[in-house]
Amino acid sequence: MNTPTHEVLYETADRIATITLNAPQRMNTISRTMLDQLTELLVRADEDPEVRCVILTGAGRAFCAGLDVTAMAQGRDTGILSEGPQRPTLDLRNTPPTVLHAMDTPVICAVNGGAAGYGMDLALGCDIRLMADTAKLAAAFCKRGVLPESGSTWLLPRMIGWSKAAQLIFTGRTLSAAESLEWGLASEVLAAGELMARARALALEIAANAPLAVQASKRMMRMGWNETFPDHVHHVYLQLLPLARSEDAKEGMRAFAERREARFTGR
Q: How far apart are CA 207 and CA 170, in angstroms?
């Protein structure tokens, strides 16, 4: 199924949803329309029991070049940081970075090109980042007189430690794909022509596992960032109890005993 929208594309196949930012003529810079459509499609994927993994990528040569700084400098309405009485009000609980953080469905970001500012935050909000060897992560916020508004001040210290996060944010540095891998911000770097095939292969590998177990594992990883170890162990146990009684758990045990691939149904 392929459902095109104006600025974001949504496609499902083999229990994988592929969401593509689709404004290549402006390097997928963020508009209010794109924000709304991306939020809607992320929620759709997370609520669809047939979707077991999501791939997020961009059309054209960029993943997402951030906010439209040129339009902002010229005083044109970007739909996000506008001034004046027509300034739109964003419900921050329903914007892509917050939705990405709350999703139980795993999300792979296939960073096909530059991911700058808001685009970098979107990539960091995904669970796994695969990068084309020509892609870059650009933390240019402080170079533009703003701060990382969409998650990286929270994410980066947890991902790479305070010192590295401070260095990246305060300098506004751009990391190549190789540097992103070295810093621990990318899982793999691939030739550009191999990126989507590898993202799909990884998504299929995830989708083959028991979806309730994958989703619960992600939920516990997310909760664990803000819990003490004793509290976390307790919450993991509470998650484990219903999983152990699920049909998928029984199927997993049978498949192991019978030395065959498990056939999980999400029940």
A: 38
Phi–psi pair at 142, nearest 5 degrees: -65, -20
- The pLDDT score that the predictor gives to residue 121 is 96
pLDDT score recorded for residue 143: 84
3-state secondary structure of 132: strand
What is the C-alpha separation between 13 and 146, in angstroms, rounded?
Answer: 39
For residues 81 and 114, membership in a common domain is answered with yes
DSSP code of residue 262: -
Q: Which domain holds residue 33?
A: 2-207
Both 151 and 21 in one domain: the answer is yes
| Secondary structure (3-state) at 236 | helix
Please, are residues 22 and 59 in contact by the beta-carbon 8 Å criterion?
yes
Residue 267 lies in a domain: no
Confidence (pLDDT) at 220: 94
Task: Walk along the chain (267 residues) in steps of 10 and give the mean pLDDT of each run.
Answer: 72 98 96 93 97 98 86 55 52 86 97 96 97 96 82 94 96 96 98 98 97 95 91 90 90 91 91
For 244-247, the CB contacts below 8 A with 24+ separation are 246/210, 246/212
- The pLDDT tens digits of the residues spanning 216-241 come to 999 999 999 989 999 999 999 898 89
Strand, coil or helix: what is 129? strand
Contact 78, 153 (CB under 8 A): no
The domain total for the chain is 2
Q: Are residues 194 and 219 in the same domain?
A: no
Same domain, 157 and 199: yes
Are 14 and 86 within one domain?
A: yes
